[in-house]
Amino acid sequence: MPAEALAPPCIRVLAGQFRELTRQDLAFARAVDAYLSHLRGQGKLESFTLARRKFGFGPEGLGEFHIRIAFRDLAQLDACFSVVATREGDVERLHHPVYSMVTNFKSALFRDFPDPERGKPDAAGNA
User: From start to end of 1-125, where are the E strands?
Assistant: First the structure.
């Protein structure tokens, strides 16, 4: 089987850095897990991770926590947003405990690189 057939699809990653507003860090972690697991169960995202700075190392601007949410493609990200933007039902019930404990939220959208749009670099590093 060619290596390309074994390669995972290109993943788009939405990453957020922030401070937790309260000192209920374990309750916050449970709330993030419940909310994002709900969306993953609906096929609206591929995976997620929650990380916390160790020993407070790192610049203040990075925040205390980091959430990484992976999507198969931009269509899946858009479909997830369409559900979340309703702010109704289970989505809002699960989202509220998360955002009510967050301050100084910053986010970015990343992609695997090089990706199919750019091609793979040759030995000299040229695409």
Answer: 12-20, 47-52, 65-71, 102-111
